[in-house]
Amino acid sequence: MTPDPGSHAVTRPVTARRSGPLRGQIRAPGDKSVSHRALIFGLLACGTTEIAGLLEGADVLATARACAALGAKVDRLGEGRWRVEGVGVGALLAPTDTLDFGNSGTGARLMMGVVAGHPVTARFDGDASLRKRPMKRVLDPLALVGARVLESAEGGRLPLVLQGAREPLPVTYETPVPSAQVKSAVLLAGLAAPGETTVIEREATRDHTESMLAYFGADVRVVPEGAHGRRITLIGRPELRPAPVRVPADPSSAAFPLVAALLLKGSKLAIEGVMANPLRNGLVVTLREMGARIEVLDERREGGELVEDLVVQFSELAGVEVPAERAPSMIDEYPILAVAAANARGVTRMRGLSELKVKESDRLAAVADMLRAAGVEAQIEGDDLIVEGKGPGGVPGGGTVVTHMDHRIAMSGLVLGLATDAGMAVDDVAFIATSFPDFLPLMAGLGAEIG
Ligand SMILES: O=C(O)C1=C[C@@H](OP(=O)(O)O)[C@@H](O)[C@H](O)C1
Ligand SMILES: C=C(OP(=O)(O)O)C(=O)O
């Protein structure tokens, strides 16, 4: 059906050196969250879903293969253009082989939700990074729906065998951690249950699942809950109608060239079509507070999402305090924000980062280690990260970044190195292919010295 997501056989060390201005116009790859969901909704709709701009990163390709294993016909028509012939809610096939999600928490957890609502049994696995990540956060609510874990590694971790419910129950569930993956798993399981499934979140997280449920014809209501939260109610057993999906550019990927342009004197970079969903744009809000010159040229709706063209110029940044309640809107952007903070004047304090400890690596520790390797003082106090900025161009560099199988640490380490005199080595850039396969050539095309 599809290209192989590839395995991580070879580690690739790379060095980034002090670079001149970054100039040009780019488009970041398709949004990873929307890409996973486009395939999954394609699987659950009856008929043919056409997708344009799909991220062809290893994480998403693993989800495409899982959709095929569960009964969809998945075809690549051209660059970013995919067609999924779905089976409809309730009609999944039992997969014959293990569903291997590689490095991807989103793929694994959302698909557990899908399987939980169907009378099929599936074995889930992933790479060494994914095997360390907590799965009980989705398995606990899915047990309420009626799914059973038949086997698992310690603490409910991968590899695990999940038996979906024969008669899934609608549940009302309050997520104990702010997680769009947990919310989405419960909603996807609820699709197959009769009646109302409700998820309550105390802090709103990215809302792509809710938006796509509505876009594919499900009856879904979203109302505010408390100061920062939401209550999402879905009526189960809809017939999902296929709908064309145009995937906007990923703000979490755009973040890397964006911050690089802010740090390198004389840079001016245009970034097209970046998703501007308010539940995803905490980084731009924070960088502006730090003094970043980021201009919005054209704000519009594309494929149901708000997108904008950005023009970014070199900026002298100042340290700020980043409130904990902003974390869900920029959860994947803290490693690159920390790189910006290292190049700012004064101290940046990022509060409430406990969720960073359970990503592809313990990102709180990995980011602090990365900065220290570059000669920047960084402390972890409880769930907060405190960075003593060196001022524009002031980071000495000269060390090695240990990526721990984490694409965002690898890309952050390279951007960090671009603004140092001594450069930074990054021990392994292979995992960048999970979310931003063309990162290295794209950066080189803008003038970045990476090699
Ligand atoms: O739902 C999603 O697509 C994602 C949710 C976030 O994870 P959590 O739900 O664990 O916060 C984020 O870190 C991840 O990259 C993508
Ligand atoms: C946390 C991330 O992804 P996932 O949870 O899907 O592995 C990420 O891309 O930064």
Structural overview:
29% of the residues lie in helices and 27% in strands. With 451 residues, the protein is α/β, with parallel strands linked by helices. The chain has 2 domains: 220 residues, Enolpyruvate transferase domain (UDP-n-acetylglucosamine1-carboxyvinyl-transferase, Chain, Alpha-beta prism), CATH 3.65.10.10; 215 residues, UDP-n-acetylglucosamine1-carboxyvinyl-transferase, Chain (Alpha-beta prism). The protein has a 4-stranded mixed beta sheet with strand order 22-23-1-24. A 4-stranded mixed beta sheet has the order 2-15-17-16. The longest helix has 13 residues. It is globular and about 60 Å long. The structure holds shikimate-3-phosphate and phosphoenolpyruvate. The site of phosphoenolpyruvate (PEP) has 9 residues, from helix 3.
Summarize this structure as a short list of keywords or feature phrases.
451 residues, 4-stranded mixed β-sheet, binds shikimate-3-phosphate, UDP-n-acetylglucosamine1-carboxyvinyl-transferase, Chain, single chain, globular
List the helices and strands and how they pair.
Layout: E1 14-17, E2 23-27, H1 32-44, E3 46-52, H2 58-69, E4 73-78, E5 81-87, E6 99-100, H3 105-116, E7 121-125, H4 128-131, H5 136-145, E8 148-153, E9 157-163, E10 172-174, H6 180-190, E11 196-201, H7 208-215, E12 220-225, E13 229-235, E14 245-246, H8 251-263, E15 268-275, H9 282-289, E16 293-302, E17 305-313, E18 321-322, H10 334-342, E19 347-350, H11 363-373, E20 378-381, E21 384-388, E22 400-401, H12 407-418, E23 424-426, H13 439-446, E24 449-450
Parallel strand pairs: 2-15, 3-14, 6-7, 10-11, 18-19, 22-23
Antiparallel strand pairs: 1-23, 1-24, 3-5, 4-5, 7-9, 8-9, 11-13, 12-13, 15-17, 16-17, 19-21, 20-21
This protein binds shikimate-3-phosphate and phosphoenolpyruvate.
EC number: 2.5.1.19
Pfam families: EPSP_synthase (PF00275)
GO molecular function: 3-phosphoshikimate 1-carboxyvinyltransferase activity
